[in-house]
Amino acid sequence: MALDAFRQALAASALDLVGVVAAADARPLVSCGGGPDPLSGAGALVVVASGGRGFWERLERRPGEEHPIDRAGQEAIAAALPRLPGGRLLPLDVRDRFDLRRLGALAGLGVVSPHLLLLLHPTFGPWVSIRGLVAVPDALPTTGPLAYDPCGPCPRPCLDACPVGAYSRAAPFDARRCGAHRLASDAPSPPPAPCADRCRARDACVVGGEHRYGDAEMRHRHRAGLPLLRAWLGA
Predict the structure, then answer these.
(1) Residues 6 or more apart whose Cβ sits within 8 Å of residue 76
(2) What are the respective helix, strand and coil percentages of the chain, to the nearest 5?
(3) d(Cα 80, Cα 223) in Å, to the nearest integer?
């Protein structure tokens, strides 16, 4: 089967999580006003993700690149694409128009934690990243969502780990408080603040801790979103 061959080709690059969502179910997860329908003519959307440290450890870094992991993900998926006839890799700016957490949950790649608001995989925990989306013309068997509740029996140390209470047992996640603290943590004055290069709440999740990103990957991922965060907060 073509999808199995595609999975095998991706696994060689440590893109080891692949799920399928019907195009009709994925379409409501696209933000409005961002351009033409990215799923026009598609019957299904294949969601490709990495779990744990493997993809970063295989990453070839090129001088001057700010976000090599995005480029490498697109290249690895494109290299495997001939195994999936009719598959169309969506560009990064189109990928980012989707609600990727909810899309990953629909694809069976985890569930969205009601506390961390991150995608949690049964094996990799919160150490999962969606690397690319492939639209295919034919309908394919879907792979999710999962019947999985990682947070129900958990004592939720993630809620106590946030140093500014953006994650809290008493209130919903405060994105502005989190964002402002992250930007303040990135200030050049020593000593480094607790959230300069990682999310302490995510780090405290009890699921998949053995797959936690290494320090270099954590730092890269955490800092890559700071320009967008500054723009959002007007900082």
Answers:
(1) 10, 13, 15, 131
(2) 35, 15, 50
(3) 29
Q: What is the distance between the alpha carbons of residues 235 and 231, in angstroms, rounded to a whole number? A: 6
Q: Which two tokens stand for residue 191?
A: 């000593």
Q: Which is more confidently placed, 183 or 67? A: 183
pLDDT digits (tens, 9 = 90+) for 52-86: 999 998 886 666 666 688 889 999 999 999 999 99
Q: Which residue has the tokens 């709440």?
A: 201
Q: How far apart are the C-alpha atoms of 36 and 78, rounded to whole Å?
A: 22
- Short-list 190, 163, 206, 144, CA closest to 20: 144
What are the pLDDT digits (tens) for 111-159?
A: 999 999 999 999 999 999 999 999 999 999 999 999 989 898 899 999 9
Check if the beta carbon of residue 98 is closer than 8 Å to that of residue 30: yes
pTM for this entry: 0.92
The whole-number pLDDT of residue 36 equals 86
Residue 54: closest CA among 229, 226, 212, 177: 212
Question: Which phi and psi (to 5°) does residue 216 adopt?
Answer: -65, -45
Question: Who contacts 87 (Cβ-Cβ below 8 Å, separation ≥6)?
Answer: 6, 46, 81, 134, 135, 136
Nearest partner of 94 among 130, 143, 126, judged by Cα: 130
Distance CA 219, CA 234 (A): 23
